[in-house]
Specification:
homodimer; about 160 residues; alpha+beta; Alpha-D-Glucose-1,6-Bisphosphate, Chain A, domain 4
């Protein structure tokens, strides 16, 4: 996709991604898995061929996080995230950018909602994205989050094993 | 609107607002009007009964702005904005929150695209919003931006008068 694919000379494509999952864990446990940088790093560590290095973690409203990832030994992508709203065990809203080398390829805001359904959790992940200059695409984002949430699910199941 | 109006126990309503305008000015002049804090303050100053006080301005990628507004003498609203992407004369992407008193009522990401059509500018403003706990609504946001852009248009026209 190139800039020319945007109609009318535009350089931004806006999309909203909604992913819904049920986890066999309480909202408190799911929230903890989102809030804990070590747990996030475990989910993102090699296995998909994508290493991740966290440069900065600050899980609080106004706090900023920076992480780098990409093929092993080649962390060409940098994600910068700022937390906009945090309601413990219920909600996280964050916004940030994705950069490839020196080029910003997307900006987005993401909302994680944790809804209790008794003992388990219905999670709704909503990402409102702006893909810049045709350098990042919706499909990659949806696939990446699908893999990440599969790992979260596996991690929550493992914690329950004796 | 209350939390109970959100289906399934959700606490966030997501919406995308798109406002398109044509301005009788070059993209460079329209961009300057967005970038200049003094110009923004003029547009937002009383006349609609809403005073504005800018506490912090930092128009650069990663820069943060804080402004307060509300009825005269009662600046109950606080807007915090971080710039995510800036392409001079072409594009601004920003994200932030709106707080009423001590309560965060919304988070959003906004993209301003400036497209040249010769001597004038086609501007597309896209706001991807998350309204929190039923405390902020789409209609207010659309009306507020409509008024703000009317003032921008008037300001650009005035600058052209002899």
């Amino acid at each position: 996709m190139t800039v020319n694919d945007f109609p009318g000379g535009r350089t931004v494509r806006h999309d909203t991604i909604v992913i819904e999952r049920r986890f066999d864990a309480t909202p408190a446990r799911v929230f903890a898995a989102w809030a804990d940088p070590a747990a996030r790093a475990r989910r993102s560590s090699p296995g998909t061929g994508r290493g991740i290095a966290a440069d900065q973690h600050d899980f609080r409203v106004g706090g900023r996080e920076v992480s780098r990832f990409g093929p092993a030994g080649e962390p060409v992508y940098r994600a910068e995230t700022t937390y906009l709203d945090i309601v413990p065990d219920r909600r996280i809203v964050m916004a940030g950018t994705m950069t490839e080398g020196e080029t910003r390829i997307s900006a987005s805001m993401a909302t994680v909602e944790l809804l209790t359904t008794g003992d388990d959790t219905r999670m709704i992940y909503t990402e409102q994205a702006a893909f810049l200059d045709g350098r990042d695409v919706l499909e990659n984002r949806v696939r990446g989050w699908g893999e990440n949430l599969d790992k979260l699910d596996a991690e929550l199941r493992r914690e329950c094993e004796p």
